[in-house]
């Protein structure tokens, strides 16, 4: 028996070496960890259970019949993150560049099926060169099997992709169908076709970083939800993210011990909004002062900064935060901000995460660039997403809530459950200047009359009270009591039930 056990250890040792020490050293020299080292950091110590360590490809073309490396370029299994089950697959770049064969795909789909059966999140760590070129259609078919499962699991279990090296060809589309994509700065890139193909087809000369690095996807394209300095930081942040997420769509949000007090008031919030309505202030200050321990996990921090999205906790329970940011473009809603927030809102709703919305929005961004870019359709995405929510919606208007953007930002009319306004709120069709120039056009030459009309408009409409008189706002609250108000509202709504008519699925404007 000892020989048998020794043989097993030997085979395990061989599999753990992947593509061999030379390639492991090359991986380290590039500042990257190996597939197994990454899993060790992602999961609780000693919790990883590996599957299919000895799986090999079955390709007999182009000399592959003599090249067999146990595991075939992907490490798969499950373990725990702070005690909660997650499934994981980690592409091993040292084995055939992490490329996907039929056998490699079968390892991933096994893990996808198990994650769905166990109703637990799945995390994919990517560092790969796309379809295994020697395998041809077996590799393409393998990708199709993975994609189909991504879609089946969407909205049932959280799916997270972390890009930690090259991610090309077929490898980009599976992440694209997961809930979140994060990247590592300078060492990872994602593109459908690489720089060489780009040059051949379009004559454009571009580097990998310029084409698909974190500086592109976390800032310009919005393909990625965030980027980290190195492998270590990225993996530790994934552990933090998992702590905010439910295991599945029926499990409810995780509840962690809170070291913050429910009744904490913050007098500094009474002076957060400047006297001058055109002066910006940082909405993140309000977010951090409202949530437990100021702990906020921001999603897409570097893209469409005019809206802030992310996860936090109130009384130890996860919430999604959506907030207009007056510091960027005065917090206006444009196409990018609408798309960003709509996707976040839909994630929260799919996984029963209540949403707290902070509103200070001067309206939708006017202009040909926005209209030609489909602002109507993109704005409608956010309107649709909020209107469709069945999770608790708590809304606080801090200052401007103008025009259609008032309706969109989780107003009472589209399903807001508890809607509060600060005394500094201004709820109107538009700001005073624009309004007076339209409805008192005849007086435009008379400065005194215009000043009087502007004052009249401001006094009547630029306050929360017209909306409060009609019940569109449940209460005008003291800014310093925002945390307590939000926490009590969420407590009230904890068992919210709402019915929607049966349908196969909706037709959100894509
Ligand atoms: C087989 C591959 C491979 C692949 C890399 N390797 N990609 N083997 N199939 N797709 C192997 C290399 O031969 C090499 O083996 C090792 O992995 C490391 O690769 P290098 O090129 O030395 O590394 P590097 O210089 O870092 O470049 C990494 C890379 C490059 C940018 C990913 O390898 C590359 O461009 N690969 C091809 C990418 C691609 O076009 N894939 C197909 C996409 S089409 P040795 O033995 O020398 O170490 C696709 C279709 C699916 O995916 C569509 C579904 C919708």
UniProtKB/TrEMBL annotation:
Domain of life per record: Bacteria
GO BP terms, alphabetized: carbon fixation
Domain CoA carboxyltransferase N-terminal: from-to ranges: 1-257
Signal peptide limits: none
Coiled coil: none
Domain CoA carboxyltransferase C-terminal: 264-504
Annotated Gene Ontology cellular component terms: acetyl-CoA carboxylase complex
A molecular function GO annotation: acetyl-CoA carboxylase activity
Pfam family, one: Carboxyl_trans
Similarity-based family: Belongs to the AccD/PCCB family.
Name by which UniProt lists this protein: Propionyl-CoA carboxylase beta chain
Organism expressing this protein natively: Phreatobacter aquaticus
